[in-house]
Design goal:
By secondary structure, the protein is an alpha/beta fold. It has a single domain, classed as 2,3-Dihydroxybiphenyl 1,2-Dioxygenase, domain 1 (Roll), CATH 3.10.180. 18% of the residues lie in helices and 39% in strands. Strands 4-5-6-2-7-10-9-8 form an eight-stranded mixed sheet.
Length: 160
Amino acid sequence: MTTTTPTRTATRVQLALNVADLEASIAFYSALFGVRPHKRRAGYANFVIDEPALKLVLIETSAAERGSGAAGALNHLGVELAEVEQVHEHAARLRTSGLILDEELDTTCCFALQDKVWAHDPAGTPWEFYAIKDDDPAGVELLTLAETASGACCTPGTCC
């Protein structure tokens, strides 16, 4: 099993999942994709997977909130971009397409400093386009997941 260093040359789809047992989920996804987590914090882990190009985020929730099967699994979806300028390019493209966006610049989310924009599909599923400015910022106060308003990271207005 390898540890992955993030590649900044390409975009990758992000899938953020709610999990009731973080340690069991880390063990499962490590075995499934053959990589260890890139980042671990209390109630949170993320994997940077080169093949397929995927950023997998695990966000610990209560068993009651998570439920079983596919129901309750999805937290949000996203596209990780290599450069901050790409966030602004996608924002312009999405606005031209008539989508309403929530914009977060210089925000601390998922224990990193980011620029991002959010759009929601017709059923309300949140999608983010984001770029990491600093994956481990020093001197920036980052909230734990428990300190956020909803206990979940990476949703507009409740980001850690």
